[in-house]
C-alpha cells in the first residue's frame, strides 16, 4: 500500500468527503480523487460507497482503515523519534490549547520565548476540543484533563477556579439570582452541548433547570464577551474576570476548580525547540 495514497484514504475515511479530505491535506479535490482511485485499483477493492451524504466505507474499506492507521502510527512514531534527536533551537512548534488559556498565558510565554529564541515559530491552535498528540495534531497541548495515555508525558501547571458573573447592566435590570432557585427568572450563557456536553446542567453547583439559555457558544472568550455585553449569567475563569471591569461576581463564595496540564508525546521530550517552548509556558504559569 502506497503511503501517500493511504494518507488520503485516511483523510476521506475521517472526513467523509473528498472536499474535506483535500482541505485537511491542503491538496486539490481532483488529486484526492485520483489517489483514492489508484489505491482502489492497486488493492482491487472498492473502499467507499459514494452516497449523496458522503463517502461511506465498505467492508473492504473498514479493513483497509485498520491497516492504514497502523501505517500512520508507524510513520508518526518515526517522525517523532527523529524530532527527538533534533537539538536546533529553530523551526515550528505546534501548540494546542483553549482561547482563554492562549490569551492569558501563552501569548506572554511566546513573547518571552522570542527574546531568547527568535527562530522558533509557534503554530497556535485554539479549541475546546482535545488535539490528538499521537497523530501529531500538536507537539504540545495545555489541557484541563489529565492524560491516561502512557505514551504522553504531562506536568501539572495550575489549579484555577470558575465563578459566576454577570454585567453591571444585567444586575441593574434583573438583579442577582437567588440560591436554590435553579436560576429562575434569569438568562444564561453557556457552551454548546456538542462542544462540552452537560456543561449547562449546573453553574458552580447550582442547577440551571429553571434558567433560560440565551446563547450557546463554542469559545471561552466569546462566553466572556457575551456575559460582559449583558446577555446573561455565565461561568467564567476567576483569574480573567479583572480584565473586564464591567463584570460583577455573583455568589463569590461559590466556585468550581479545574486543573491545567502541559502534555507532550514522550518522543518529543528531547527536541530542543519543544523543550524551550514548554519551559517558557511553565515559567509563565509559575508566576501566575
UniProtKB/TrEMBL annotation:
What's the short name of a Pfam family annotated to this entry? HTH_1
For this protein, the record's InterPro entries field holds: LysR-type_TF_proteobact-type, LysR_HTH_N, LysR_subst-bd, WH-like_DNA-bd_sf, WH_DNA-bd_sf
Q: What are the residue boundaries of the HTH lysR-type domain, all occurrences included?
A: 1-58
The UniProt keyword set, sorted, is: Coiled coil, DNA-binding, Transcription, Transcription regulation
Q: What Gene3D superfamilies does this protein map onto?
A: 3.40.190.290, Winged helix-like DNA-binding domain superfamily/Winged helix DNA-binding domain
What GO molecular functions are on record for this protein?
DNA-binding transcription factor activity; sequence-specific DNA binding
GO biological process terms on file: DNA-templated transcription
Coiled-coil ranges from the UniProt annotation: 61-88
Q: Which family does it belong to?
A: Belongs to the LysR transcriptional regulatory family.
Supply the name of the protein. Answer: HTH-type transcriptional regulator DmlR
